[in-house]
Amino acid sequence: MAVEVPDAHRPDGEALSSGASMVFNVYPSCGSRPACPRLSTVQRVMSLIVQKYGGTSVGSIERIQNVACKVKGWKEQGHDVVVVVSAMSGETNRLIGLAGQLSKSPSPREMDVLVSTGEQVTIALLSMALHELGADARSYTGGQVHILTDGAHSKARIMDIDHARVCADIKAGRVVVVAGFQGVDQAGNITTLGRGGSDTTAVAMAAALNADECQIYTDVGGVYTTDPRIEPKARKLDRITFEEMLEMASLGSKVLQIRSVEFAGKYKVPLRVLSSLEEGEGTLISLEEGSVEEAKIAGIAFNRDEAKLTIRGVPDEPGVAYKILGPIGESNIEVDMIVQNIGKDQTTDFTFTVNRPDFEKALKVLKETARELGAREVEADDSIVKISLVGVGMRSHAGIAAQMFGALAREGINIQMISTSEIKISVVVDEKYLELAVRALHQAFGLDSGPSAA
Question: What domains can be seen in the chain, in order of their start residue?
Fold first, then answer.
Protein backbone atom coordinates (compact mmCIF):
# COMPACT_ATOMS: atom_id res chain seq x y z
CA MET A 1 0.00 0.00 0.00
CA ALA A 2 1.44 3.35 -1.00
CA VAL A 3 0.59 6.50 0.90
CA GLU A 4 1.84 10.06 0.72
CA VAL A 5 3.62 11.74 3.61
CA PRO A 6 3.58 15.54 3.90
CA ASP A 7 7.16 16.67 3.86
CA ALA A 8 7.53 20.24 5.06
CA HIS A 9 11.17 19.73 6.01
CA ARG A 10 13.99 17.46 5.06
CA PRO A 11 15.88 15.51 7.76
CA ASP A 12 18.48 18.25 7.96
CA GLY A 13 15.82 20.89 8.52
CA GLU A 14 15.93 22.23 4.96
CA ALA A 15 12.52 23.35 3.74
CA LEU A 16 11.15 21.65 0.65
CA SER A 17 9.10 23.29 -2.05
CA SER A 18 5.43 23.84 -1.35
CA GLY A 19 3.31 20.72 -1.75
CA ALA A 20 6.28 18.34 -1.77
CA SER A 21 5.55 14.82 -0.55
CA MET A 22 7.04 11.39 -0.61
CA VAL A 23 5.57 7.98 -1.33
CA PHE A 24 6.32 5.43 1.35
CA ASN A 25 5.23 1.81 0.92
CA VAL A 26 3.77 0.14 3.98
CA TYR A 27 3.68 -3.63 3.82
CA PRO A 28 1.35 -5.97 5.72
CA SER A 29 2.50 -6.98 9.20
CA CYS A 30 5.01 -9.81 9.45
CA GLY A 31 2.38 -12.31 10.56
CA SER A 32 4.61 -13.83 13.24
CA ARG A 33 2.11 -12.94 15.98
CA PRO A 34 -1.59 -12.19 16.36
CA ALA A 35 -2.66 -8.59 16.16
CA CYS A 36 -1.97 -6.81 19.44
CA PRO A 37 -3.57 -3.73 20.97
CA ARG A 38 -1.41 -0.63 21.15
CA LEU A 39 0.69 -0.35 24.29
CA SER A 40 -1.04 1.44 27.15
CA THR A 41 2.10 1.34 29.27
CA VAL A 42 5.68 0.55 28.42
CA GLN A 43 5.86 -3.07 29.61
CA ARG A 44 2.36 -4.49 29.73
CA VAL A 45 1.46 -6.42 26.58
CA MET A 46 3.50 -8.62 24.25
CA SER A 47 4.04 -6.61 21.08
CA LEU A 48 6.36 -5.74 18.24
CA ILE A 49 8.59 -2.92 19.44
CA VAL A 50 11.08 -0.83 17.45
CA GLN A 51 13.71 0.76 19.67
CA LYS A 52 16.25 3.42 18.75
CA TYR A 53 19.42 4.11 20.75
CA GLY A 54 21.39 7.27 20.05
CA GLY A 55 25.12 7.88 20.10
CA THR A 56 25.31 8.67 23.82
CA SER A 57 23.40 5.47 24.65
CA VAL A 58 25.97 3.36 22.74
CA GLY A 59 28.97 5.59 23.43
CA SER A 60 31.14 2.91 25.06
CA ILE A 61 31.41 -0.86 25.34
CA GLU A 62 29.82 -0.67 28.79
CA ARG A 63 26.84 1.28 27.44
CA ILE A 64 26.46 -1.10 24.51
CA GLN A 65 26.35 -3.95 27.04
CA ASN A 66 23.74 -2.01 29.00
CA VAL A 67 21.61 -1.64 25.85
CA ALA A 68 21.98 -5.37 25.18
CA CYS A 69 20.69 -6.11 28.68
CA LYS A 70 17.67 -3.87 28.11
CA VAL A 71 16.90 -5.47 24.76
CA LYS A 72 17.23 -8.98 26.16
CA GLY A 73 14.86 -8.00 28.97
CA TRP A 74 12.23 -7.01 26.41
CA LYS A 75 12.68 -10.32 24.57
CA GLU A 76 12.32 -12.27 27.81
CA GLN A 77 8.98 -10.56 28.38
CA GLY A 78 7.80 -11.99 25.07
CA HIS A 79 8.14 -8.92 22.85
CA ASP A 80 9.52 -8.99 19.32
CA VAL A 81 12.25 -6.35 19.10
CA VAL A 82 13.87 -4.46 16.24
CA VAL A 83 16.69 -2.14 17.32
CA VAL A 84 17.93 0.89 15.35
CA VAL A 85 21.23 2.40 16.48
CA SER A 86 23.35 5.46 15.78
CA ALA A 87 27.14 5.62 15.61
CA MET A 88 28.97 5.70 18.93
CA SER A 89 29.10 9.18 20.42
CA GLY A 90 31.74 11.31 18.66
CA GLU A 91 32.41 8.77 15.91
CA THR A 92 30.68 10.65 13.10
CA ASN A 93 32.58 13.83 13.97
CA ARG A 94 35.83 11.85 13.99
CA LEU A 95 35.11 10.51 10.50
CA ILE A 96 34.21 13.97 9.21
CA GLY A 97 37.48 15.24 10.67
CA LEU A 98 39.45 12.59 8.79
CA ALA A 99 37.81 13.65 5.54
CA GLY A 100 38.65 17.26 6.31
CA GLN A 101 42.32 16.40 6.54
CA LEU A 102 42.22 15.20 2.95
CA SER A 103 39.87 17.63 1.25
CA LYS A 104 38.19 20.96 1.92
CA SER A 105 35.20 19.88 -0.17
CA PRO A 106 35.03 16.08 -0.29
CA SER A 107 32.64 14.33 -2.65
CA PRO A 108 29.15 14.03 -1.09
CA ARG A 109 28.93 10.45 -2.32
CA GLU A 110 32.19 9.47 -0.66
CA MET A 111 31.24 11.34 2.53
CA ASP A 112 28.12 9.18 2.78
CA VAL A 113 30.22 6.07 2.27
CA LEU A 114 32.52 7.25 5.04
CA VAL A 115 30.10 8.45 7.74
CA SER A 116 27.75 5.48 7.31
CA THR A 117 30.48 3.19 8.67
CA GLY A 118 29.94 4.53 12.18
CA GLU A 119 26.55 2.82 12.46
CA GLN A 120 27.96 -0.37 10.95
CA VAL A 121 30.41 -0.63 13.85
CA THR A 122 27.62 -0.18 16.39
CA ILE A 123 25.25 -2.78 14.93
CA ALA A 124 28.02 -5.40 14.92
CA LEU A 125 29.08 -4.66 18.50
CA LEU A 126 25.50 -4.67 19.82
CA SER A 127 24.77 -7.97 18.08
CA MET A 128 27.92 -9.45 19.63
CA ALA A 129 26.85 -8.20 23.07
CA LEU A 130 23.43 -9.81 22.63
CA HIS A 131 25.04 -13.09 21.58
CA GLU A 132 27.12 -13.04 24.77
CA LEU A 133 23.90 -12.76 26.77
CA GLY A 134 22.43 -15.74 24.97
CA ALA A 135 20.09 -13.74 22.74
CA ASP A 136 19.99 -14.57 19.04
CA ALA A 137 20.56 -11.37 17.05
CA ARG A 138 21.38 -10.37 13.50
CA SER A 139 22.64 -7.00 12.25
CA TYR A 140 21.85 -5.23 8.99
CA THR A 141 23.10 -2.10 7.29
CA GLY A 142 20.59 0.19 5.61
CA GLY A 143 21.53 -1.33 2.28
CA GLN A 144 21.00 -4.90 3.49
CA VAL A 145 17.52 -4.09 4.76
CA HIS A 146 17.11 -2.18 1.51
CA ILE A 147 15.99 1.13 2.91
CA LEU A 148 15.49 2.77 -0.47
CA THR A 149 16.07 6.54 -0.61
CA ASP A 150 16.32 9.23 -3.22
CA GLY A 151 19.80 10.23 -4.41
CA ALA A 152 20.27 13.39 -2.31
CA HIS A 153 23.53 12.63 -0.52
CA SER A 154 23.74 13.76 3.14
CA LYS A 155 20.01 14.60 3.21
CA ALA A 156 18.29 11.67 1.50
CA ARG A 157 14.61 10.89 1.96
CA ILE A 158 13.27 7.39 2.54
CA MET A 159 11.11 6.16 -0.34
CA ASP A 160 10.55 2.51 0.55
CA ILE A 161 11.59 -0.27 2.94
CA ASP A 162 11.72 -3.94 1.95
CA HIS A 163 11.28 -5.61 5.32
CA ALA A 164 11.21 -9.26 4.16
CA ARG A 165 14.54 -10.15 5.81
CA VAL A 166 13.55 -8.43 9.03
CA CYS A 167 10.24 -10.32 9.15
CA ALA A 168 12.01 -13.62 8.55
CA ASP A 169 14.33 -12.98 11.49
CA ILE A 170 11.45 -11.91 13.74
CA LYS A 171 9.64 -15.16 12.91
CA ALA A 172 12.82 -17.05 13.82
CA GLY A 173 12.86 -15.35 17.23
CA ARG A 174 15.86 -13.12 16.60
CA VAL A 175 16.52 -9.56 17.66
CA VAL A 176 17.07 -7.51 14.50
CA VAL A 177 19.66 -4.71 14.75
CA VAL A 178 19.49 -2.10 11.96
CA ALA A 179 21.90 0.73 11.20
CA GLY A 180 20.15 4.07 11.45
CA PHE A 181 20.81 7.22 9.43
CA GLN A 182 21.47 5.41 6.14
CA GLY A 183 20.01 3.75 3.07
CA VAL A 184 20.72 3.18 -0.61
CA ASP A 185 19.43 4.89 -3.73
CA GLN A 186 18.14 3.15 -6.83
CA ALA A 187 21.66 2.98 -8.25
CA GLY A 188 22.93 1.19 -5.14
CA ASN A 189 24.84 4.18 -3.78
CA ILE A 190 25.03 4.53 0.00
CA THR A 191 23.07 7.56 1.22
CA THR A 192 22.59 9.20 4.60
CA LEU A 193 19.48 10.91 5.95
CA GLY A 194 20.96 14.00 7.56
CA ARG A 195 20.79 15.29 11.11
CA GLY A 196 18.60 13.10 13.34
CA GLY A 197 18.39 10.46 10.63
CA SER A 198 18.42 7.52 13.03
CA ASP A 199 15.16 8.73 14.60
CA THR A 200 13.65 8.82 11.12
CA THR A 201 14.93 5.31 10.36
CA ALA A 202 13.37 3.95 13.55
CA VAL A 203 9.95 5.49 12.92
CA ALA A 204 9.99 4.43 9.26
CA MET A 205 10.83 0.85 10.30
CA ALA A 206 8.02 0.94 12.86
CA ALA A 207 5.58 2.14 10.21
CA ALA A 208 6.69 -0.47 7.67
CA LEU A 209 6.46 -3.30 10.23
CA ASN A 210 3.17 -2.06 11.72
CA ALA A 211 4.89 -1.99 15.12
CA ASP A 212 2.91 -1.39 18.29
CA GLU A 213 5.30 1.26 19.55
CA CYS A 214 8.49 3.04 18.55
CA GLN A 215 10.73 3.85 21.48
CA ILE A 216 13.44 6.49 21.19
CA TYR A 217 16.08 6.07 23.89
CA THR A 218 18.15 9.16 24.64
CA ASP A 219 20.16 10.67 27.47
CA VAL A 220 17.03 12.36 28.88
CA GLY A 221 14.07 10.74 30.58
CA GLY A 222 11.41 12.08 28.24
CA VAL A 223 9.89 15.31 26.98
CA TYR A 224 9.92 18.13 29.54
CA THR A 225 7.76 21.22 29.95
CA THR A 226 10.89 23.16 28.99
CA ASP A 227 14.66 22.72 29.00
CA PRO A 228 15.66 21.71 32.57
CA ARG A 229 18.98 23.48 32.07
CA ILE A 230 17.08 26.78 31.83
CA GLU A 231 14.30 26.03 34.32
CA PRO A 232 15.27 23.47 37.01
CA LYS A 233 11.57 23.08 37.91
CA ALA A 234 10.73 21.71 34.46
CA ARG A 235 8.64 18.54 34.68
CA LYS A 236 8.67 15.44 32.53
CA LEU A 237 5.39 14.99 30.66
CA ASP A 238 3.70 11.60 30.81
CA ARG A 239 2.19 12.18 27.39
CA ILE A 240 1.98 14.78 24.64
CA THR A 241 0.18 14.88 21.29
CA PHE A 242 1.86 14.62 17.90
CA GLU A 243 0.72 18.16 17.13
CA GLU A 244 2.35 19.54 20.25
CA MET A 245 5.56 17.55 19.76
CA LEU A 246 5.79 18.64 16.14
CA GLU A 247 5.52 22.27 17.21
CA MET A 248 8.06 21.76 20.02
CA ALA A 249 10.52 20.10 17.62
CA SER A 250 10.11 22.81 14.98
CA LEU A 251 10.55 25.54 17.59
CA GLY A 252 13.89 24.36 18.92
CA SER A 253 13.29 21.37 21.17
CA LYS A 254 16.16 18.93 20.47
CA VAL A 255 14.59 15.81 21.99
CA LEU A 256 13.25 14.47 18.68
CA GLN A 257 14.02 15.19 15.06
CA ILE A 258 11.04 16.86 13.40
CA ARG A 259 10.81 14.44 10.48
CA SER A 260 10.51 11.44 12.80
CA VAL A 261 7.52 13.08 14.49
CA GLU A 262 5.93 13.72 11.07
CA PHE A 263 6.36 10.05 10.16
CA ALA A 264 4.95 8.84 13.46
CA GLY A 265 1.94 11.14 13.26
CA LYS A 266 1.17 10.23 9.65
CA TYR A 267 1.30 6.48 10.25
CA LYS A 268 -0.21 6.68 13.75
CA VAL A 269 2.75 4.94 15.36
CA PRO A 270 2.83 5.66 19.11
CA LEU A 271 6.22 7.19 19.85
CA ARG A 272 7.83 7.06 23.28
CA VAL A 273 10.91 8.95 24.50
CA LEU A 274 12.84 7.23 27.29
CA SER A 275 16.21 7.34 29.00
CA SER A 276 18.71 4.62 28.16
CA LEU A 277 20.55 5.29 31.42
CA GLU A 278 17.72 5.04 33.95
CA GLU A 279 14.38 3.29 34.39
CA GLY A 280 11.07 5.00 33.72
CA GLU A 281 8.12 5.09 31.32
CA GLY A 282 9.26 8.27 29.60
CA THR A 283 6.85 10.36 27.52
CA LEU A 284 4.29 8.87 25.15
CA ILE A 285 3.59 10.86 21.98
CA SER A 286 0.26 9.88 20.47
CA LEU A 287 -2.92 11.12 18.80
CA GLU A 288 -4.80 11.19 22.10
CA GLU A 289 -5.18 14.67 23.55
CA GLY A 290 -5.83 13.52 27.13
CA SER A 291 -7.09 16.11 29.62
CA VAL A 292 -7.15 19.10 27.31
CA GLU A 293 -9.50 20.98 29.65
CA GLU A 294 -6.98 20.65 32.49
CA ALA A 295 -3.78 21.46 30.63
CA LYS A 296 -3.71 24.76 28.73
CA ILE A 297 -0.01 24.54 27.87
CA ALA A 298 2.10 21.44 27.25
CA GLY A 299 5.44 23.19 27.26
CA ILE A 300 7.69 26.13 26.45
CA ALA A 301 10.11 25.91 23.53
CA PHE A 302 12.78 28.41 22.59
CA ASN A 303 15.23 28.94 19.78
CA ARG A 304 18.47 30.90 20.10
CA ASP A 305 19.20 30.39 16.40
CA GLU A 306 17.33 33.52 15.30
CA ALA A 307 18.24 36.89 13.82
CA LYS A 308 16.00 39.85 12.93
CA LEU A 309 16.15 42.12 9.88
CA THR A 310 14.11 45.29 9.26
CA ILE A 311 13.81 47.39 6.13
CA ARG A 312 12.25 50.83 6.82
CA GLY A 313 10.61 53.41 4.61
CA VAL A 314 9.73 51.15 1.70
CA PRO A 315 7.06 52.56 -0.68
CA ASP A 316 3.70 51.02 0.27
CA GLU A 317 2.53 49.50 -2.99
CA PRO A 318 1.24 46.13 -4.26
CA GLY A 319 3.92 43.46 -4.41
CA VAL A 320 6.30 45.11 -1.96
CA ALA A 321 6.46 41.99 0.24
CA TYR A 322 7.50 39.92 -2.76
CA LYS A 323 10.11 42.47 -3.77
CA ILE A 324 11.64 42.19 -0.30
CA LEU A 325 11.36 38.45 0.33
CA GLY A 326 11.78 37.25 -3.26
CA PRO A 327 15.56 37.84 -3.33
CA ILE A 328 15.84 36.30 0.15
CA GLY A 329 14.13 33.12 -1.03
CA GLU A 330 16.19 33.03 -4.22
CA SER A 331 19.28 33.07 -2.01
CA ASN A 332 18.00 29.86 -0.34
CA ILE A 333 17.42 31.63 2.98
CA GLU A 334 14.45 30.45 5.03
CA VAL A 335 12.27 33.14 6.62
CA ASP A 336 10.45 32.50 9.89
CA MET A 337 8.38 35.31 11.46
CA ILE A 338 7.16 38.34 9.48
CA VAL A 339 5.70 41.68 10.64
CA GLN A 340 4.67 44.58 8.37
CA ASN A 341 3.73 48.06 9.63
CA ILE A 342 2.23 50.73 7.35
CA GLY A 343 2.95 54.39 8.16
CA LYS A 344 0.92 57.53 7.44
CA ASP A 345 3.48 58.67 4.88
CA GLN A 346 2.53 55.83 2.49
CA THR A 347 5.64 53.82 3.37
CA THR A 348 5.95 50.52 5.16
CA ASP A 349 8.40 48.97 7.61
CA PHE A 350 8.97 45.25 7.02
CA THR A 351 10.58 42.98 9.65
CA PHE A 352 11.39 39.28 9.40
CA THR A 353 13.57 36.68 11.12
CA VAL A 354 16.02 34.17 9.64
CA ASN A 355 18.26 31.46 11.01
CA ARG A 356 21.31 33.02 12.62
CA PRO A 357 23.81 31.24 10.33
CA ASP A 358 22.08 32.97 7.39
CA PHE A 359 22.18 36.41 9.05
CA GLU A 360 25.14 37.96 7.21
CA LYS A 361 24.04 36.59 3.85
CA ALA A 362 20.48 37.84 4.37
CA LEU A 363 21.70 41.27 5.47
CA LYS A 364 23.78 41.65 2.32
CA VAL A 365 20.80 40.71 0.13
CA LEU A 366 18.47 43.05 2.01
CA LYS A 367 20.81 46.03 1.70
CA GLU A 368 20.89 45.55 -2.06
CA THR A 369 17.08 45.34 -2.11
CA ALA A 370 16.88 48.54 -0.03
CA ARG A 371 18.96 50.41 -2.60
CA GLU A 372 16.75 49.17 -5.44
CA LEU A 373 13.51 50.10 -3.63
CA GLY A 374 14.74 53.43 -2.28
CA ALA A 375 14.16 52.36 1.33
CA ARG A 376 15.14 54.68 4.15
CA GLU A 377 17.33 52.24 6.11
CA VAL A 378 18.05 48.65 7.07
CA GLU A 379 18.35 47.50 10.68
CA ALA A 380 19.72 44.15 11.86
CA ASP A 381 19.85 42.34 15.20
CA ASP A 382 21.39 38.91 15.79
CA SER A 383 20.93 38.93 19.58
CA ILE A 384 17.31 37.82 19.79
CA VAL A 385 15.52 34.60 20.78
CA LYS A 386 12.13 33.16 19.97
CA ILE A 387 10.11 31.80 22.89
CA SER A 388 6.93 29.82 22.28
CA LEU A 389 4.03 28.44 24.30
CA VAL A 390 2.68 25.17 22.87
CA GLY A 391 -0.52 23.36 23.82
CA VAL A 392 -3.65 21.88 22.25
CA GLY A 393 -5.49 23.28 25.28
CA MET A 394 -5.30 26.72 23.67
CA ARG A 395 -8.22 25.66 21.48
CA SER A 396 -10.55 25.61 24.47
CA HIS A 397 -9.06 28.34 26.65
CA ALA A 398 -9.33 32.08 26.03
CA GLY A 399 -6.84 34.65 27.24
CA ILE A 400 -3.63 32.62 26.82
CA ALA A 401 -1.92 35.39 24.84
CA ALA A 402 -2.89 38.06 27.35
CA GLN A 403 -1.62 35.90 30.21
CA MET A 404 1.67 35.37 28.37
CA PHE A 405 2.15 39.05 27.59
CA GLY A 406 1.28 40.01 31.17
CA ALA A 407 3.86 37.63 32.62
CA LEU A 408 6.57 39.10 30.39
CA ALA A 409 5.49 42.67 31.13
CA ARG A 410 5.79 42.09 34.88
CA GLU A 411 9.43 41.17 34.33
CA GLY A 412 10.07 44.26 32.18
CA ILE A 413 10.63 42.16 29.03
CA ASN A 414 9.78 43.95 25.78
CA ILE A 415 8.15 41.89 23.01
CA GLN A 416 9.57 42.69 19.58
CA MET A 417 7.49 40.35 17.39
CA ILE A 418 4.47 38.07 17.85
CA SER A 419 3.30 35.05 15.86
CA THR A 420 0.35 32.75 16.60
CA SER A 421 -1.25 29.55 15.39
CA GLU A 422 -4.04 27.35 16.71
CA ILE A 423 -1.84 25.67 19.33
CA LYS A 424 1.17 28.02 19.54
CA ILE A 425 2.08 31.58 20.52
CA SER A 426 5.63 32.76 19.75
CA VAL A 427 7.35 35.99 20.73
CA VAL A 428 10.73 37.46 19.90
CA VAL A 429 12.62 39.09 22.77
CA ASP A 430 16.16 40.23 23.49
CA GLU A 431 18.46 37.25 24.00
CA LYS A 432 19.58 38.46 27.43
CA TYR A 433 16.05 37.86 28.75
CA LEU A 434 15.83 34.21 27.68
CA GLU A 435 16.18 32.52 31.07
CA LEU A 436 14.08 35.11 32.88
CA ALA A 437 11.29 34.86 30.30
CA VAL A 438 11.18 31.04 30.28
CA ARG A 439 11.08 30.87 34.07
CA ALA A 440 8.41 33.57 34.32
CA LEU A 441 6.18 31.82 31.78
CA HIS A 442 6.78 28.42 33.35
CA GLN A 443 5.55 29.76 36.67
CA ALA A 444 2.71 31.83 35.20
CA PHE A 445 1.15 28.79 33.55
CA GLY A 446 1.72 26.46 36.49
CA LEU A 447 3.96 24.10 34.56
CA ASP A 448 6.09 23.40 37.62
CA SER A 449 3.13 22.07 39.61
CA GLY A 450 0.35 21.10 37.18
CA PRO A 451 -0.62 17.63 35.93
CA SER A 452 2.09 15.95 33.92
CA ALA A 453 -0.25 14.71 31.22
CA ALA A 454 -0.60 17.21 28.42
Answer: 2-288 (3.40.1160.10), 300-444 (3.30.2130.10)
